[in-house]
Sequence to fold (529 residues):
Amino acid sequence: MNANTDLTGAPLPPEDSSSSNITGTGRPNTTALFPTSSRRERPGALALTIGFGLVAVCLIGLFTSPTAAIGGAWCIGMMLVLLFLSVPVAIALSVPSIIGVYAVSGIPATMNILSTAPFSAVSDWSMSVLPMFIFMGMLLTQSGLSGKVYRVADHWFSWLPGGIGIGTTFAGAGLSAVTGSTIGMTYALGRAGIPEMLKAGYDRRMAVGTIMVSGMTGNLIPPSILMVVYAGIASVPVGPALMAGAVPGILLAVCFAAFIFALGVVAPRLVGRGQSAKTATDANTTRPTTTWRDRLTSLTGVWGFAVILVVLFGGMFSGIFTPTEAGAAAALCSLLLCLWEKRGDGPWRKIADSAMDTVAATSAIFFIMIGATMLTSLLAITGLAPILTGLITDLGLSRIGFLLVLIVLYIVMGMFFDTLSMMLLTIPILLPTLETMGVSPLWFGVFVVLLGEFAMVTPPVGIIPYIVHSIAKNPEVNLGVTVTLRDILVSLLWFLPVGVIFLILMVAVPGMTEWLPDLIERTSGGMSG
Fold:
């Protein structure tokens, strides 16, 4: 997996692609799980020369370090260089860690980490929920559910000021939660949502901004693959980790929807209302009127999604299933749904494709987790982790001050790293500090994943703005309206402050993350499996 893709490795499709048929018509193409492209261009000859030169400097510094801690710092530097060179995350984490352990402790310790890390990183029973959730997302995408979910949201919210944007926000949260791919969801939703908003007279910046933030909550709302990965790295129970992100994810989606509604009331021209609003002149671009019959009929297309939610959450709330068992049951329901929805259209082939993609995605994630385990071992052997913890505590920061500094740090890191890279580099270092600062590891997982979603939309390297800009250059999407990169960046200035305010609210009210796990614990009698 490339360091510059999202968790599932979803690529940016070509500009002239029509594969993301989210409207529910036609036959959608399958997006390749692991792309050959990345958010950045591959390093050129000069960049490679400089990069390998820096790696050589790090190696020299490592083997000549006077202390083990300094050697560990050189290894961290080597990891950063490899990530900037677009080396796959698993390799960027594991190779410097192995070299560092060898330099500090010799061959016996190196052989020990090579023999134990691969098994210990992925052998926990709770990790078996990961391929189940990935398989479920693949099957739901293959079944064409994504287009139906968007149509339901569109039909039910379009009557509100900014209603199409509100519906797009909720649809994006649901779709990215189910598919596990913020990038894939953004492309699919952008192809359908941008022209729909432009037809309704939305300001172009409003249209693209809504698409960019609509998937930010997806990796918080269960089933969240990133939360499962965090649980593996931080050694916290998978069940509570999954449930911890549900309430913040839903509340953030509500906050973005409320912001769009407020703009629709205060500045109606931005959402196609009022006398000064832009209106479509071509009859072919006019949105049809939505009736109550349309709204009710749209619900019949997503009955399978409702069944899966009942199985997933109802099973855990009732205590019938542990999270691992609930994931397996939801995957089985998704398989049956795919067979039903695609009957007569090669359903078994789609299931086989989903299974192969699931194996590829799970393998890539497990390799990354092995690399993270090796990094943790390096920090322990070199003694770098307690030194860093001491440096942080010596600053004398309060809990709130510590977290506010982390917000700034992660937003800056988000300009250069993707979500998973940030998590894997920082979590092993910061975990020992959390207890000192009185921060719950469960809360911190939600905090880190949300900051990682900010990384996806933060220029200059965040990939989401460039995806949306690429989509908006297609004449079938922009309907003749020119959308510049400047428009994309301006729209981010409108929406991102809402997310920052929500982050501060999370810091002030940490109980929002632990309320649901505690409730399920009380009602079901436990959910650690």
